[in-house]
């Protein structure tokens, strides 16, 4: 029962985080200290705390765990949803032609080969796996922070503790 009480908020926070990370222009909020990722952890901890009875101790450890779970759930959601977004943005010409930029900057051909998955704008397994791994690390750190922040904001004080 206790784990289910943590899993549902983490799933909702993680999926929300993942979807928000792929929406064009909205995902730019992550440039402000990973605000969407922190927000996913805050949302998850809010959903967890709202069903808890008031207590003298704030469950900061639970908030950290729920934020971590939301971040780990959000990374593959972002990676999977990025596939159609990358294909869509490349088909309507939203991705710049990076090959031309590489040639103008005299980037060695070996480096250009490594960056070719990014420059095509389409689906690349290398880019997908790299994004997933980076997402796991970054989401885990910042969503955990968001979970703790959410507990600090939304915890219910015990009226008998005063």
Topology:
Blueprint: H1 2-22, H2 35-49, H3 60-91, H4 98-104, H5 109-114, H6 116-120, H7 125-154
Walk me through this protein's architecture.
The protein is mainly alpha-helical and 162 residues long. The chain is built from 7 helices and no strands. Helix 1 (2-22) runs antiparallel to helix 2 and helix 2 crosses helix 7 (125-154). The radius of gyration is 19 Å and the shape is elongated. The two termini are 30 Å apart. The relative contact order is 0.21.
**How would you name the oligomeric state of the polypeptide chains in this document?**
single chain
* Gyration radius over CA: 19 Å
What's the end-to-end separation, in Å?
30 Å
Helix content: over 70%
Which segments are poorly predicted (pLDDT under 50) over 5 or more consecutive residues?
Answer: none
Number of strands: 0
Sheet/helix structural class:
mainly alpha
Q: Please indicate the percent range of residues in DSSP E strands (runs of 2 or more).
A: under 5%
How many DSSP helices?
A: 7
Major sheet size, sense and barrel closure: none
Overall, the morphology is elongated
Name the helix and strand elements from N-terminus to C-terminus, one letter apiece: HHHHHHH
Indicate the mean pLDDT: 84
Q: What are the defining features of this structure?
A:
single chain; 162 residues; mainly alpha; 7 helices
Brief synopsis:
With 162 residues, this protein is mainly α. The chain is 72% helix and 0% strand. The protein has helices spanning 2-22, 35-49, 60-91, 98-104, 109-114, 116-120, 125-154.
């Amino acid at each position: 029962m206790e784990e289910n009480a943590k899993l549902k908020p983490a799933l909702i926070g993680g999926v929300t985080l993942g979807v928000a990370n792929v929406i064009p222009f909205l995902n730019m909020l992550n440039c402000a200290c990973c605000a969407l990722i922190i927000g996913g952890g805050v949302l998850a901890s809010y959903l967890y705390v709202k069903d808890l009875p008031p207590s003298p101790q704030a469950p900061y450890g639970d908030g950290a765990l729920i934020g971590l779970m939301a971040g780990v759930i959000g990374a593959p959601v972002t990676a999977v949803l990025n596939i159609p977004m990358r294909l869509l943005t490349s088909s309507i010409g939203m991705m710049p032609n990076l090959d031309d930029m590489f040639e103008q900057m005299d980037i060695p051909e070996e480096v250009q080969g490594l960056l070719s998955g990014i420059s095509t704008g389409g689906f690349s397994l290398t880019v997908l796996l790299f994004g997933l791994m980076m997402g796991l690390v970054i989401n885990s750190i910042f969503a955990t922070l968001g979970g703790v922040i959410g507990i600090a904001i939304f915890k219910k004080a015990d009226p008998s503790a005063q």
